[in-house]
């Protein structure tokens, strides 16, 4: 969501972050921060899978579904998670606009045949 007023964008992003925290996401320090990133949150889906959402100062959001950072395969398993993010925004009544195509909802994602724990 691109907004022209910086104060409005900041308030909108704070509302998005609050909604995500209420939905079980947590702040994470262990991440690669991207240029303009305001927040990065993560939520465990299972022992193996996590959702990640990043908010940026220009008001756009990025969301992905990937193997937990506790596994070596973490950087190579990212998949879009836009449908999940939209569901949270819709449930909380947070307005947004969308650019591009959405991935199919309800896709089946299974862990790789072999994953290597970092522990």
Task: Provide a descriptive summary of the structure in words.
- This protein has one domain (about 5-90).
- The chain contains two helices and five strands, in the order αβββββα.
- The chain has helices at about 5-20, 80-90; strands at about 25, 35-45, 50-55, 60-65, 80.
- A five-stranded antiparallel β-sheet has the order 1-2-3-4-5, with helices on one face.
- Strand 2 (about 35-45) and strand 3 form a beta hairpin.
- The longest helix has 17 residues, at about 5-20.
- About 20% of the residues are buried.
- Mean pLDDT is about 80; it is low at about 105-110.
Short account of what is shown:
By secondary structure, the chain is an alpha+beta fold. The chain has helices at 6-22, 82-91, and strands spanning 26-27, 37-44, 49-56, 61-67, 79-80.
What is the string of helix and strand elements? HEEEEEH
In what order do the strands lie side by side in the largest sheet?
1-2-3-4-5
Estimated radius of gyration: 15 Å
> What number of structural domains do the residues give?
1
What is the number of helical segments per DSSP (H or I, 4+ residues)? 2
Keywords for this entry:
2 helices; 119 residues; 23% helix; alpha+beta; single chain; five-stranded antiparallel sheet
Q: What is the element layout, followed by pairings?
A:
Layout: H1 6-22, E1 26-27, E2 37-44, E3 49-56, E4 61-67, E5 79-80, H2 82-91
Antiparallel strand pairs: 1-2, 2-3, 3-4, 4-5
């Amino acid at each position: 969501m691109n907004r022209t007023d910086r104060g409005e964008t900041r308030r909108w992003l704070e509302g998005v972050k609050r909604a995500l925290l209420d939905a079980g996401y947590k702040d994470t320090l262990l991440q690669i921060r991207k240029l303009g990133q305001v927040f990065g949150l993560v939520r465990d889906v299972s022992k193996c899978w996590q959702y990640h959402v990043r908010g940026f100062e220009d008001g756009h959001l990025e969301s992905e579904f990937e193997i937990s950072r506790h596994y070596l395969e973490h950087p190579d398993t990212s998949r879009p998670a836009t449908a999940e993010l939209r569901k949270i925004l819709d449930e909380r009544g947070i307005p947004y606009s969308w650019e591009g195509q959405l991935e199919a909802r309800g896709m089946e994602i299974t862990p790789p045949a072999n994953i290597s724990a970092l522990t």
